[in-house]
Specification:
The chain is an all-alpha fold and 188 residues long. Helix 3 runs antiparallel to helix 6, helix 4 packs antiparallel against helix 5 and helix 5 packs antiparallel against helix 6.
Length: 188
Amino acid sequence: MDDALETRNGLPDALRVLLDKHPRSAWQGGAGLGGLTQFWLERHLMFRQLSGQISEDTKALVTGDAEPLEYGQRLARFGGVLVQQLHEHRGVEDAHYFPMLARLEPRLAAGFDLLDRDHVALDGHLATFAEDANGLLKALQSGALSGGEDERFAETMARLERFLDRHLIDEEEIVVPVLMEHGEGSLG
């Protein structure tokens, strides 16, 4: 099975062992979840909202429904927050939570390896996002969108949003069931 972030449609069955026991329907809305798990899911929601807002704003720019300089200010602000917060979030997961969770649930070690590979892939997508966003911002500052920078960035943003959502769904479907199975107190 191809488990690359860019081509994956979901988790393989071997990584869904705890998800079957603790399905998403049992933890959506926060019922029965601890504070740490709820906070972590709220961070994921924030990433989805930020990327969705950037996508909506960019579509408005491409169609001529957004004022270019105002759009540029929003992109600089929201894009900077998205990249900075994703890097920070990933760092905490990689350095602290994923190793602890993998020790708690050895059956899912391959899942945490998959999430680590996702993080590496997302770094590349974030680098492309930053490069294309900066190109678009420079074009906006010069007052000339002559090279299709807006459309190129819209495509970059659509890819990032799709890959980010795939990763977040899969990460949630590995991590939340482990926390439900073992309890947040098991993290120390």
